[in-house]
Every structure is written in structure tokens, then in C-alpha cells.
Amino acid sequence: MNLDYLMPTRVVMGKDCLFINRSLLAELGKKAFIVTGKNSARANGAYDDAVRALEANGQDHVLFDRVMSNPTECCVYEAAAECKKEGCDFVLAIGGGSPIDAAKAAAVLAVNDIPREKLFARAFSGALPIAAVPTTAGTGSETTPYSVLVDTGSPDESRFPDGRPVVPGPSKRSIGSPLLFPRFAFLDARYTFSLGRNNTVNTAIDALSHAIEGFLCVRANYLSDVLARESIAMILDCFDSLIAFPADPRSLSAAVREKLLLASSIAGIVISQSGTSVVHSMGYMFTLNWGTDHGRANGLLMKSFLMWCRAREKNDPSVSPRIPALCSALGIDMESFCGKLETLLENREKASGAELDTWGAANMKNAANTYIKPSQEEIRRMFKEAVG
Ligand code: NAP
Ligand code: FE
Known about the structure:
Shape: globular
Number of helices: 15
Number of strands: 8
Helix content: 40-55%
CATH architecture of the largest domain: 3-Layer(aba) Sandwich
Radius of gyration: 20 Å
Bound molecules: NADP nicotinamide-adenine-dinucleotide phosphate, fe (iii) ion
Order of helices and strands: EHHEHHEHEHEEEEHHHHHHHHH
Number of domains: 2
Distance between the termini: 42 Å
CATH topology of the largest domain: Rossmann fold
Largest sheet: 6 strands, parallel
CATH class of the largest domain: Alpha Beta
Structural class: alpha/beta
């Protein structure tokens, strides 16, 4: 067996773990660049806890609270300029995947002069140390070496052979480097108690899709599979609670919140090894064009993707089957799983014929990392089945 497993993030979990483990923050530097979204970090108490921990350590801080959902490369350049101007020597990200991803890119840009057109070329030699406090239970960005950003320029990876962009306008692209693994991830489920139904469900589906896709990727390995199975089982355990989600976010039990948060960090570890599949690349189309939440976008595609995988496994003896093992991790058969997912998703969005044509012809970067590489025609059909 060949194996190469790197996961350098120290994960600390528990009530008040940020303050209790503040000595870890003290290792990172003298002045923190705290990166958050607009409101939630203050509202859920994570920002105050971080400031309390830093002050107890005698560390300074500056707050950058201008990260939007699906952060753009403009936003991270702005953050990095402020980080440099303020002389911060480490980055503390608090929020969902958006602030954590923006913080990672800012940590790179604060110590590397990278022109915008080279941002995604991964040519950098260092980054400020990063600590992450997730307040959604979905992206697992606190345990991944990726920063996913919206590149507002014209994409250079979705082009017709003559060079014309297939999907004009912005694209979602990622910077990946071991330098982007946070040094510490502090998991305190209390910060997720304020997440409403949509954010809770959509981020849980993102975590589940990391675990499922990670299991179905070329780069999956023995250890990522072990973790994927566990994360899938943990999230499936929470499915009935999610389906019966109460109107008041605070009445979803702390045990369910905690399980979702840990499962999503575990799923982050899975994709830190395996990467993601064609589902993530396809889902970006919904987010970019419709503003669909990232997790929901993956969820909309999951059924058609899994049904396609199963059919290909049946019809092609050269494919090593993965779906039976996936079903045993899910603990239910594929039809029952897709039925539950459908209940969570409620009404599906519908694409126009022109959208289906455009997306069906677009280059899907992660297709090559999917354990069975889908043809362009198969991608087109999956889009049609999902939102046609
Ligand atoms: P998000 O964009 O970070 O946050 C979505 C919304 O939830 C925001 O309005 C945010 O408000 C709010 N929010 C966050 N925490 C909250 C809380 N505890 N209570 C109430 N509201 C809260 O959503 P996300 O799904 O976590 O992140 C999505 C991004 O992560 C996408 O850009 C996706 O591509 C990326 N991603 C990255 C990785 C990776 O490995 N790096 C993996 C998967 C996805 P505020 O703006 O006020 O904070
Ligand atoms: Fe994701």
C-alpha cells in the first residue's frame, strides 16, 4: 500500500476551548489580524472570546470584518494590505468558510508580493501563521490547505479550443498549499447555535459532500477513507434532526450541533488528502450564477452524481466499485439516502436551456479527480437531471 498523509493542524474542541487553550495563540505572534464576516462572529460570541483570550495573553489585535460570502480576490488583497499596514504577525480567522478562506489568502499575500494574475499559480514561499475558529459546520476549511475564492476576472480554465471562455465572467478557484493548513483549529459548537435552518442544513450537506466525494476521488487513500466513513455516519446520524429542524435555531440540540461540527472538521481532513470531485466544480456554476449556497449547490447534484456512479460501476467491469462501501457507511440504501436528501433540499431550482447548454459544455476542473472520470456528455446529463 502507498500512503502519504499530512495533517499538521492541531484540532482542539470543547466549550470555551479558545480561552482555555489561549497559550496556543500566544505561540503565534504579537499582533493578531482577526478576519470575520460582517456580523455573525460578534453575534455568536466567538469574536469576544477571541479578544478575551488575546488580551489575557497580552497580544494586540486588529479586526477586519469585511469578508462577504464567497470572498473575491479583491477582498483578500484589501485584507492583506490592512494586515501589512497594521504590522500583524499572525491571522485569526473566525466564521464560516468564507472568512477562513479569505484569512488564509491574506496570510499568504501579507508576506508575498503576488500580482493578481498570478494569485492562483501557487508560487509563494511563506504565509503568516493561521488559527481558525469555525462558526458554521460545513466547509471544514479549518482543517484544509485550501482557500476558495471568486476570481472576478475571466476564467482561464473554462475555454473552448479557440480560447473563448465557455463560462464568461467570474469563476471559483482555489489556492492550495500545505502553508495554508491552519496551525490550530478551535472547535466550540456554541458558536454554531445561532445558525438558522438554511445555513445549518446547507453547511451540513457541504460537509457530507466532502466526505462522500472524498471517498469517490482518485486521490483518496486508506486514511482518508477511514475518516470519510466516520464523517458520513456521523452526519447521517443527524439527518432526522435536520429534517425535523425546529423553528428556533437554539432548540437544535447541542449534541447534534457538536456532532455536525466535528464531522465537518473530519470531512475537511478527508478532502485535505483526497480533494473534491466533479460535484464541487459543477456546484460552483449554481453559486456563481444563482447565488446558491455552496452546500446546497453540491446537494442538488448529489443524487444524479451517485446514480451515475452506480450505473457506471454496474456497466463497466474495469471500474473498482466504491458505491457498496459508501452505502454501508451511509447505513441505508442509495434510494433511501437520496429520498432523505431530497426532503432536506425541498424545492429544486430549475435551469434554463441556455444555462444547461453552457454549463454542460464547460470544463469541470475536478472531473479528472473523480474515481470514474465523467465525459462531457455525462456531465451535461447530470446537470439536466439535477436542475433541468
Ligand atoms: P459563509 O459564506 O462563511 O457564511 C454564510 C452566512 O452564514 C454568512 O451570512 C455568515 O454571516 C453566516 N454565519 C456564519 N456563522 C454563523 C453563525 N454561527 N450564526 C449565524 N450566522 C452565521 O458560509 P460557509 O458555507 O461556511 O462557507 C462557504 C465558503 O467556503 C464558500 O466560498 C466555499 O467555496 C468555501 N469552501 C471552502 C472549503 C475549503 O476547504 N477551504 C471547502 C468547502 C467550501 P457573516 O457574514 O456575518 O459572518
Ligand atoms: Fe465544499
